[in-house]
Amino acid sequence: MTLTDLANPTRFLALTTRILPWLAGATAILLAIGLYQSVMAPDDYQQGATVKIMFIHVPNAWLSMFVWGVMSIAALGTLVWRHPLADVAAKSAAPIGAAFTFLALVTGSLWGRPMWGTYWEWDARLTSVLILFLMYLGLMALWRAVEDPSRAARAAAVLTLVGAINIPIIKFSVDWWNTLHQPASVFRAGGPTLDKAFLWPLLVMAIAFSLLFITLHLAAMRNEILRRRVRSLQMMQASSSRTFSAEAGSASCEGNGSKEIGIA
Question: Which Pfam families does this entry report, sorted A to Z (predicted)?
């Protein structure tokens, strides 16, 4: 099955029906393994047990940016390639990305309090992630505010591509400005600087959360396709009802006119 085949919503629904149970099972297993490894990981010599917040915070922070990247590709699909499922993919991903971003902000604040002495500081990294969260909420509000689905899709696609400028700002904010955050310690030119006792649980959790996103995203896309089908059927039914009422009214008027002519 090619990507062109998946442009057909019916084939996409059939595919998701087959693979979602397997994805959900793999996600649950990896999350269980990752959480066990996170609990069993040693305490840091400086941060103590609070370092274990990293295993939740970092995957959520990575996915908050990754999901916006997925939405940006979907936005191109809407504006350039007119892919039938592009807007469905973007709209379904937005609430999930917002949830990941919110969890990244909350866990980051909980981690920052014992490390920095404050829950919040208006530095470049924290501020840019907060802006990302607000952009997610803005996109969700836009899809709800515009009734015409095609207009909402185009407007959301443009806003998504404009908002993508914030992703490199988040990524390189620790290099461009003086922030509370440390530089990258996993994906860097010289290799990871984390000890393997922390690196492996972090990578397992990152994969588990990535599978969680894929599972939730496919399920949300399936629900969105079904919701749009129901909406289309309701509109067709309403249109048929109006047409029937208009025809019935016209027939009634013609009947009354014929009686009047006969009386005359």
Answer: Cytochrom_C_asm (PF01578)
CA separation for the pair 79, 66 (Å, rounded):
20
Instruction: Give me the residue label for tokens 């993508």.
Output: 164
Give the domain range for residue 189: 19-237
Q: Which structure tokens are listed for 252?
A: 């009634």
User: Quick one: which of 197, 200, 199, 205 has its CA closest to 30?
Assistant: 205
Classify residue 238 by its DSSP letter: H
Token readout for 223 is 């629900």
Q: Give the whole-angstrom CA distance, residue 51 versus residue 143.
A: 38
Q: Is residue 218 part of a domain?
A: yes
Q: Is the pLDDT of residue 140 over 60?
A: yes
Q: Phi, psi (5° rounding) for residue 166?
A: -75, -20
Residue 9 falls inside a structural domain: no
The arithmetic mean of pLDDT across residues 107-121, rounded, is 90
Please give the mean pLDDT across all residues of the chain.
Answer: 87
**CA–CA dist 96, 16 (Å, integer):** 18
Q: Residue holding tokens 């996109």?
A: 139
Copy the structure tokens of residue 231: 């909406």
What pLDDT does 106 receive? 96
Number of domains in the chain: 1
DSSP character for 52? G
The rounded distance, in Å, linking the Cα atoms of 81 and 195 is: 44
Of residues 97, 107, 122, 226, the one with CA closest to residue 173 = 122
Please check whether residue 6 lies inside any domain of the structure: no
Contacts of 219 (CB under 8 A, 6+ apart): 16, 20
Average pLDDT for 247-264: 49
Among 96, 95, 87, 85, which residue's Cα sits nearest to residue 12? 85
Nearest to 16 by CA among 8, 167, 201: 8
Residue 81 counted as domain residue: yes
